Amino acid sequence: MPRGLFVTFEGLDGSGKTTQLKLLKQWLEANERAVTATRQPGGTRVGDRIRALLLDSRTDQLAPLAELGLMFSDRAQSIAEIIGPALAAGHVVLCDRFTDSSEAYQGGGRQLGSQVVRDLHAALCGGLQPDLTLLLLPDFDQSLARARRRNQRVAAATGSDENRFEAESTAFYRRVFDKYQQIAARDHLRVIAIDSNGSIDEVHQRVVQVVRERLVPV
């Protein structure tokens, strides 16, 4: 069976990537494609426990390298348990964040640099790369404000707390944003930057256009 297509969604929190991933999944299924959707951190039982630790604002004084190590522990588990088997079965795999997030958030935001991220990826992920990465780039200030408001609503409604990153400074997020742009310039054949300032449907249509070009006919 031919290997499936591995598509990742990247961007700042509040960029709309999670919404666009769900819409793309619906479109693919309507077009009779087998789809597996997951997220990082999380998506597996082990990964969800790691996610709770990483994103909880009560997790303080976590060293940047420890944070990076936890991200890759989650990623290695996801590849072994979800992504690898789904690709082998010929599925289109949609993943909300992958190693580009670590390069942007830990490499850029935490100022660890790109090389340590790329080295860990080679060692722990077998060098697995997405076939296509959709990088959603909305207005910087609006994206950050939207993410902070969303997580506050979720915390109030459910009691879950995933605000640790949203509590970071604007300077941190500017470094993340700039690193994403550097990744897109470096890996321009894989990473497609999409202006996500338009309506949800306008962005979805652009996402579908890009993905359709990469799909092998069934």
Structural overview:
By secondary structure, the protein is α/β, with parallel strands linked by helices. The chain has one domain (5-214): P-loop containing nucleotide triphosphate hydrolases (Rossmann fold, 3-Layer(aba) Sandwich), CATH 3.40.50.300. Helices cover 56% and strands 12% of the residues. The protein has 8 helices and 5 strands, in the order βαβααβααβααβα. Strands 2-3-1-4-5 form a 5-stranded parallel beta sheet, with helices on both faces. Helix 2 runs antiparallel to helix 3, helix 4 runs antiparallel to helix 5 (114-124) and helix 4 (99-109) packs across helix 7 (170-186). It starts with a strand and ends with a helix.
Keywords:
five-stranded parallel sheet, 8 helices, 218 residues, 56% helix
